[in-house]
Design goal:
Layout (H helix, E strand, L loop, with lengths): L21 E4 L2 E5 L10 E3 L2 H7 L3 E4 L18 E3 L3 E3 L5 E4 L23 E2 L2 E4 L5 E2 L3 H6 L5 H4 L6 E5 L9 E5 L5 E3 L8 H4 L25 E4 L7 E8 L12 H7 L4 H6 L6 H12 L3 H17 L6 H14 L10 E6 L9 H9 E20 L17 E2 L8 E16 L1 H8 L2 H16 L3 H8 L5 H20 L7 E6 L14 E8 L8 H5 L4 H12 L45 H5 L9 H15 L3
Parallel strand pairs: 4-19
Antiparallel strand pairs: 1-2, 2-5, 3-4, 6-7, 6-8, 7-11, 9-10, 9-14, 11-12, 12-13, 15-17, 16-17, 17-18, 17-19, 19-21, 20-21
Helix pairs in contact: 1-9, 7-8, 10-18, 14-16
Length: 630
């Protein structure tokens, strides 16, 4: 393809313009090619825990081109190919199938028939399938499905026009017309399920970045016509992990070991034990860290032994949450690190404060502010038309397309971000007693039955654990209301905040510690991180005011009583009392797609006791007393 430059932020190469994603730039439409188009000099991103979870050797991020130097730099970042290739002129309405050999550097496609040479516009509809393939609709075939004569049926001319008529509205007003035989068909019904199959179209088995010489995949999925900007065109599958340093009491906490473990080549050396390049890695690490090669070898063996002897969990998501939960719940147990700086704080309640604040203090066991955290976000793949079910089953949900569509990906595209956050842990005894209430258990079991029937069950179970605990739904709802309230108090908008919920269940007989907490954080694709707004809100007296206000606001929704009395909302009825007016967040905030939310378990109602019910009642009595002292 021709070297045509456009600017894309590094974070956007993961979401929303990662591999397979469509990006619109000044009237042009492109799709991100797979990682085979990346140059070998992509910047390495280290995250051993996340790499072990995803079974890859490491991660790379798109290199940054200095401002003003794009015209002089060679193309070293991700490639984006023009898609769809069917374009039309907004003046003469002539349709053209654009080829890469017609590209001119830094110039948009233009109509050669019109004197003013207007820019060509991409067609609105494209073709996708559940296997993740995407291609242009065969507009010649579409127009000729209304053929009435033998000449029209035999017409092979690809000169088409995309005409808009004022006599009708909607898709009926848009017609594809053959310039040779004058047969035409409007776009009415094009997005109906199986419409393309009814007129004989099949899935091409290709992706937009495939060359004409590439062999297509054998695909028997039914193609579907969707709008280019529709939400079901692209479902990215991302994973993230917070960088957790070695515990202070760990034998690896000495300075020499820290230098080796933090070396940029350590992940590659650790994963290439029997590879031919292992010896070269060992020599470089030993020389640059000023240790012996035997020491480096012994450290790798120790890490392998510890990994083999560590308690097995349900899945690797559990392993990630265990280390993060341990670091946040006991911040004094981790070593000082330039990427992980946390400290304990408190609500700062005095004896003269209102009863609601004392009740709130009694249910919170720990508060930790993170002055600096590092998060690595990686893109594993994507699905189209339907979200992936997460279990690799082909009968439900869309199939996952890897970021390397030709072979197994040895590395994944990723970004590292730095930020700050607030961690809150709840008292395990209080939350255990609340979960044992029959009404709370029965209410959660109803949500779990909907979860079991959902095609997203496996993906959501990877976050909630083998059993959906009431604490998970309650804490997830708390995290959403916490983010909404912080967007008013901290100076960050809601879309820039993210959640991590620590409330998963463990397999029976597991010795893993119980979890009951949330971490709300913000991260920017910048080495300097963010400006301290969340840390300020996590310290007294700001945090207690934020928590009381969010609990008070959670009692009311503009959609009540429909929202409060709901027995099933959103996709697959996975939510209860939660809607866009009160609880749901932008998709960048939530780690499980705005699912498993319920205000009832947070604040309670007439029948179900919410975990913070006593706090809410005390706050209401104080408010009533302030209005009417008598």
């Amino acid at each position: 393809m021709k070297d045509i430059r456009h600017k894309v932020r590094r974070a956007q190469t993961i979401v929303p313009f990662g591999v397979g994603g469509i990006i619109d730039i000044r009237g042009e439409s492109f799709v991100a090619a797979d990682i085979r188009s990346w140059a070998a000099n992509g910047e390495r991103v280290s995250s051993p825990r996340l790499a072990a979870k995803l079974g890859v050797e490491g991660f790379r991020s798109a290199p940054v081109i200095p401002s003003g130097k794009a015209a002089f730099a060679s193309r070293i970042g991700p490639a984006y190919v023009r898609f769809p290739k069917w374009l039309f002129c907004p003046q003469c309405r002539e349709m053209q199938f654009w080829r890469s050999d017609r590209e001119v550097r830094n110039r948009q496609p233009a109509c050669g028939r019109c004197a003013t040479r207007p820019q060509l516009a991409p067609m609105r509809f494209i073709q996708v399938c559940r296997a993740g393939h995407m291609t242009d609709i065969d507009w010649r075939r579409w127009a000729h499905t209304n053929s009435t004569s033998h000449a029209q049926r035999q017409c092979q001319v690809r000169r088409l026009r995309f005409v808009a008529t004022p006599e009708s509205s909607g898709l009926e007003a848009l017609r594809v017309v053959c310039a040779a035989c004058q047969v035409e068909r409007n776009l009415a019904g094009i997005s109906q399920k199986n419409m393309l199959k009814q007129i004989g179209m099949q899935c091409s088995g290709t992706h937009p970045w495939h060359a004409e010489t590439d062999d297509p995949d054998a695909c028997e999925e039914t193609p579907q016509a969707v709008q280019r900007g529709a939400s079901n065109v692209y479902f990215p599958i991302t994973h993230s992990a917070i960088d957790i340093p070695v515990p202070a009491a760990h034998p690896d906490a000495d300075a020499a070991t820290q230098r080796v473990v933090n070396h940029s080549l350590w992940p590659d050396f650790n994963s290439s034990e029997y590879g031919p390049i292992s010896g070269a890695f060992r020599t470089i690490i030993a020389n640059q860290c000023e240790v012996s090669e035997d020491f480096v070898d012994s450290l790798r063996r120790r890490h392998a032994d510890e990994a083999a002897s560590s308690p097995s969990a349900l899945d690797s998501d559990d392993d990630l949450s265990i280390a993060e939960w341990a670091a946040f719940s006991a911040p004094e147990s981790v070593t000082d690190s330039s990427t992980f700086s946390v400290r304990r704080t408190r609500l700062g309640i005095s004896p003269e404060d209102p009863p609601s604040t004392h009740e709130l203090d009694s249910v919170i066991s720990a508060i930790v502010v993170a002055d600096r955290v590092r998060e690595v976000r990686a893109l594993e793949g994507f699905s189209r038309y339907e979200p992936s079910s997460g279990d690799n089953e082909e009968d439900e949900g869309g199939r996952v397309v890897s970021v390397n569509s030709a072979t197994r990906a040895r590395w994944l595209p990723a970004i590292e971000t730095y930020g700050e956050g607030i961690f809150i842990a709840l008292d395990d005894d209080r939350i255990g007693a609340w979960e044992s209430l029959p009404k709370v258990r029965d209410w959660t079991k109803r949500i779990e039955r909907n979860l079991d029937a959902s095609f997203k069950a496996d993906r959501l179970r990877s976050k909630s654990g083998p059993e959906l605990l009431p604490r998970f739904v309650m804490l997830h709802t708390l995290a959403h209301h916490f983010i909404r309230q912080l967007s008013y108090d901290s100076g960050y908008n809601a879309a820039s905040l993210r959640e991590r919920v620590y409330a998963r269940s463990h397999v029976p007989g597991s010795e893993l510690p119980p979890q009951a907490g949330v971490f709300i954080y913000t991260a920017a694709g910048d080495a300097e991180g963010t400006l301290g707004g969340l840390v300020r809100q996590g310290q007294p007296p700001n945090l207690v005011e934020t928590l009381i206000r969010l609990l008070e606001s959670a009692q009311w929704c503009s959609q009540d009583p429909l929202c409060a009395d709901s027995t099933g909302r959103s996709l697959a009825n996975l939510n209860r009392a939660a809607c866009h007016a009160c609880t749901l967040l932008p998709e960048t905030c939530c780690e499980i797609d705005n699912s498993l939310l319920d205000r009832t378990l947070l604040i309670g109602d007439g029948e179900i006791p919410g975990f913070f019910r006593e706090v809410v009642h005390a706050a209401l009595e104080e408010s009533a007393g302030a209005v009417d002292p008598a």
